[in-house]
């Protein structure tokens, strides 16, 4: 389960973007939280589908039947990726945001005036505003759970107290897309279910770093986006079968009432779904490589891959945070205690005493180091910390990044 130098080099060779240079220096992609780079096999799968299999589904001719086969395959792969044995409970769409907006409208049909929906001030706005608007439409009440400014983790005492017999939905992220903190979603789901409420998880930022397991997480619904875990721009939505079958879907006629088509609006981007299938295959092959076992089934291989990725990324984040601590004028927002690194992923949000996040990002960009500035749609968090309108600089590490790249960033920050 070790992410060795050999495995790292094997992975990096598969990403054509990593050969890009800025001036005389290789580009460093620390912008992964906004969208990771893509392996060549994923690019090839998209192109191959468009070149040889492009057709709508349901036709009585070869390319349509090949498209049907692709859809079956990608549903099975996505089920393995999410940790469910029911491929029909996975739906696809443009991205997590689009899926959540559509799904929130349907779920709100089951709410009554005066009932309550809980969201947090730590989440990406895609898991906040859809629920706020849906609640407003039906007269339901929104409750916001705060976070602890000292380490940007949720106020769990407040969270538990906020859940009452009136609560109908709890919406929370698996990991902060700003500070990288991982939320105890299993505990939160347990509290919600004790009160009879449903749980919707945003796993977009969690997906490139740790294994998703909808069964272990105890949620009712979960959404993520493939372009955040080395794939194309496609969203994934999972829900419990009995709930998906019962809820009313906004869809055209004569779209099917059965799963999985019930929750997929219009014809999907089949080429992107070919890319999603290849993306999950790429991650599974990492697991087979680190386990030195080519016979592992897809879910077992994914489990091995993410265990190795987690250990490797923890090494990178320790190196980065230790180095930043030696530099003056920089504050990291989030968990910085190495003893608690199991509660965070390798994403860092920081501010500088003299430079805005945009000024830092521009300086680093000129040196070929790609980072993100602003609030990255974690608007409630940025406002609460008093960082608007400048936001924070975000450095996002994933498994194709290296210790040498971390050191190069640290040198650049020291020069600032």
Short recap of the structure:
By secondary structure, the protein is α/β, with parallel strands linked by helices. Helix content is 41%, strand content 15%.
Keywords, separated by commas or semicolons:
14 helices; 2 domains; 16 strands; alpha/beta; Aspartate Aminotransferase, domain 1; Aspartate Aminotransferase, domain 2; 3-stranded antiparallel beta sheet
Task: Report on this structure.
- The chain is an alpha/beta fold.
- It has helices spanning 5-12, 40-52, 62-82, 96-108, 129-138, 156-162, 185-194, 214-217, 241-246, 270-291, 298-325, 357-366, 379-384, 403-415; strands at residues 21-22, 25-26, 28-29, 90-93, 116-120, 141-145, 147-148, 153-154, 167-173, 198-202, 221-225, 235-239, 330-333, 347-352, 369-370, 393-396.
- Helix 8 (214-217) links the parallel strand 10 and strand 11 (221-225).
- Helix 3 (62-82) packs across helix 10 (270-291) and helix 11 (298-325) runs parallel beside helix 14 (403-415).
- 48% of the residues are buried.
- The mean pLDDT is 97.
SSE order and pairing:
Elements: H1 5-12, E1 21-22, E2 25-26, E3 28-29, H2 40-52, H3 62-82, E4 90-93, H4 96-108, E5 116-120, H5 129-138, E6 141-145, E7 147-148, E8 153-154, H6 156-162, E9 167-173, H7 185-194, E10 198-202, H8 214-217, E11 221-225, E12 235-239, H9 241-246, H10 270-291, H11 298-325, E13 330-333, E14 347-352, H12 357-366, E15 369-370, H13 379-384, E16 393-396, H14 403-415
Parallel strand pairs: 3-15, 5-6, 5-9, 9-10, 10-11
Antiparallel strand pairs: 1-2, 4-12, 7-8, 11-12, 13-14, 14-16
